[in-house]
Amino acid sequence: MIVVPQKEVDLLRVTVLFNYVFEWDSEERYKRTRDLVQCDGRYGQGVALGLISLCNHSESPNSDYEFDYENDVIVWRALRNIGPGEEVTLHYKVPIWFEMLDEREAEPQKALV
Question: Which domains are present in the chain?
Answer without folding.
Answer: 2-90 (2.170.270.10)
